Amino acid sequence: MEMQDPRALTERVADLVREGADEDLREVLKEQPAEVLADLLEHADPSSRDTIFSAIEPHLAGETAALVDETVLEDLLEDIPTDQLVEMVSDLEPDEALPLLEEVDAETADAVLRRLDPEDASELRELLGYDEESAGRIMAFGAPAVTEQMTLGEALSHLRAAADELDELQAVFVVDSIGRLRGYLPLDALLLRPAATAVADVMRRDVTFAYTNEDREQAAARAQRSHLLAIPVIDNRGILRGQITQEKLREIAEEEASEDMYHLAGVAEDESVYTSFRQSLQKRLPWLYVNLVTAVLAAWVISLFEGTIEKVAALAALQTIVAGQGGNAGIQALTVTVRALALGDLDWRNSRRTFYKELGLGVANGLAVGLVIGLLVWLWRGNIWMGGVIFAAMLLNMTAAALAGFSVPVLLRALRLDPAQSSGVFVTTVTDVCGFFFFLGLATLFLPYLRGI
Amino acid sequence: MEMQDPRALTERVADLVREGADEDLREVLKEQPAEVLADLLEHADPSSRDTIFSAIEPHLAGETAALVDETVLEDLLEDIPTDQLVEMVSDLEPDEALPLLEEVDAETADAVLRRLDPEDASELRELLGYDEESAGRIMAFGAPAVTEQMTLGEALSHLRAAADELDELQAVFVVDSIGRLRGYLPLDALLLRPAATAVADVMRRDVTFAYTNEDREQAAARAQRSHLLAIPVIDNRGILRGQITQEKLREIAEEEASEDMYHLAGVAEDESVYTSFRQSLQKRLPWLYVNLVTAVLAAWVISLFEGTIEKVAALAALQTIVAGQGGNAGIQALTVTVRALALGDLDWRNSRRTFYKELGLGVANGLAVGLVIGLLVWLWRGNIWMGGVIFAAMLLNMTAAALAGFSVPVLLRALRLDPAQSSGVFVTTVTDVCGFFFFLGLATLFLPYLRGI
């Protein structure tokens, strides 16, 4: 229950790096567990990470690397000698070692694999063979399994005998004689029921599982609703291949949530606060250039109405209200829809009803916001026609916003694309272009009534 | 391993509701487990939810209610008779029953508590006494615990004897003679090591725990890094009071991620795709009104420069590019910062460095985007001064965006407020107001060179 002060450690290490006291640095790091070392590396100045990492004892370096943030790992493994990588990887379980091999080029990864213990190498090759976003890619080998024919006592002895081969014991699965998944054995039954009880009598057959080639997000969403801590992974023949542990399931849930939030905001999914300046710039700038195209498109729409604006300059101020509010309403609808798709809450059963609901919300919000801004503009500018134009434009644009906010992610999902990716920019492009067009178009139609305000 | 087709069930139930075939509906629902019933209610038409819910067998209704989405629960419990609520709650564990009592008014909740088994009522009162966002509020009583003095065999017998009182066995905690938390006993040790082994020899003392009055998000973030499935909850004297199970920990991680994403987009944290039209409207409209105030503020800034715009109407088109790109860059910085604060990745150790990094990114992105748009405008409008004005305004606004995107959430956190809440609207207000002011202000200064384009 003792807690370490991470601040003191971080500062001490920074001092030692500055002084070039390599020997002392090594001494200090030697006493720390891998979790602390990973946290230390993440919070250290990016320029000192290599020095700190090379002062970590070889047997701890692998475990530490397996725990650090992805972009920090990328920095650490740049130009790493193959020898050192082999040493780091050889002490790790295949599922822990995988991220390290994913970070280096295929040639280096291959060189490392050829020098590993053949069994580890073959398991790693199997993992690397699965699709990047698949459940198989993140599974751990050595899922604890017993057979239906055993008693609980036999099951316990079987598990004890196999203890060395086992991955973490978070769930015990039940298989048949050729290794096909049949169900699971609740741990409390195994611990608390008499040893003579048959496995078949206390096992649960309603087991949540994943296929090796299935999308990991889908599998994790299902696991969320199950009572299992770790879920079994089976191949197409039903054979138990491994398990996805609860740490991984938590990680996926967290990553997927970050991912959607990041994609909506135009941030790369692997950026974090630990990412170096250069990497961050490379990740953010392309998105800003994409946005620039849409901003220029919106500006072009406005420029079509320059003749109108010259006559009534007040339109230049009011147009941003229509476009901006449309954007806000669109992003609300988009966020609720993206999150519902991610959680599996929106499917064919409620999609039509949700479409009408969002459409209704667009109209209702448009009326409510349009009335207020219409009145305000009437009072501010002393022209009821101007109030009417902004009311009508707001109603139309909020309706367009609702349609875009709902339809863009649903269409992306139907096309088997990520519903969050770039959908924010699509939606705000619609609301900007429509907002400016509706407002300035209506103003041009009613121009005779708007002059001189 | 059998899977049900949820589509067929949903349609069958919808048909029976339409036909008013209550008896048949009851028959169909009787065969379903609570998870399926919860999913069914969520996906049903909101107007038919009450009919379906009242056709669920009383002993299943409570379990089902404990599983449904918060806004659906709100609908179901509206005007529910106290008798029925007592029946639903009485079969649930206190931590499962809590959301039901939170949804009804204090008077009804009190009436229910007075009719429950006194022990359950007192546990529920304890939970309700903790702060809404605290770890204590979501803990389950009956955390499995053994003492240091036991052998593994004794520990197992102790757990077996207490099996009825125990909450789920996801972790076994070790306490001293007066119930203070000392560590935990890894389940694989308990299962796989010889019965004569002393608990003290295999227990782990580096246990992650939560205080009853601690913020649940903080506790969950710590649990994330630990090896425990469920974490123990202790009071200020160190006494073990209960545990937070892994289902709850997953739920918190998911909720907190949704929450930040929702808050950034101006969506209420408890809105979902299942929320009824009326509730959604009530939740979204206030946010749009808040945004309207900031939109009017931005429009007012523009109106200060109407004299300039009258002379050069092209400014009305170009101003949106400066404000829009500032908003995009600000939201990028904001999203990375909010996520880092939520994950505990940003603290005093790297906040100054991160501030300078974001500032640098603002300047670098401003230069990169400003140069491109400056050149483009020069070519488009044939006026180098106009290109220069938009370049300078873009550089200034992207820098302001970076400062706002980083500072707003950090300041909110320093004030002990939610870093995500409303921060999107603060940041885009800054980038709109600054963007329009920088661009139109500079244009006014250089007006003689811009005329006639």
Could you walk me through the main structural features you see in this protein, from its secondary elements to its overall organization?
The structure is a homodimer of 453-residue chains. Chain A contains 22 helices and 6 strands. Chain A has 453 residues and is mostly helical. In chain A, the strands form 2 sheets. In chain A, strands 1-2-3 form a 3-stranded mixed β-sheet. A 3-stranded mixed β-sheet of chain A has the order 4-5-6. In chain A, a hairpin with a 5-residue loop joins β2 and β3. In chain A, α15 runs antiparallel to α18 and α20 runs antiparallel to α21. The longest helix of chain A has 31 residues. The radius of gyration of chain A is 29 Å and the shape is globular.
Number of separate strands of chain A: 6
Sheet of most strands of chain A: 3 strands, mixed
Number of helices of chain A: 22
C-alpha geometry of chain A: globular
Q: Largest protein interface? A: A-B, 117 and 117 residues
Q: What proportion of the residues of chain A is helical, as a percent range?
A: 55-70%
Rounded to the nearest angstrom, the radius of gyration of chain A is 29 Å
Average pLDDT level of chain A: 90
Strand content of chain A: 5-15%
| Multimeric organization | homodimer
Topology of chain A as a string of helices (H) and strands (E): HHHHHHHHHHEHEEHHEHEEHHHHHHHH
Q: Segments of chain A where pLDDT lies below 50 for 5+ residues?
A: none
C-alpha termini separation of chain A: 72 Å
Look at the helices and sheets of chain A and give the structural class: mainly alpha
The strands making up the biggest β-sheet of chain A line up spatially as: 1-2-3
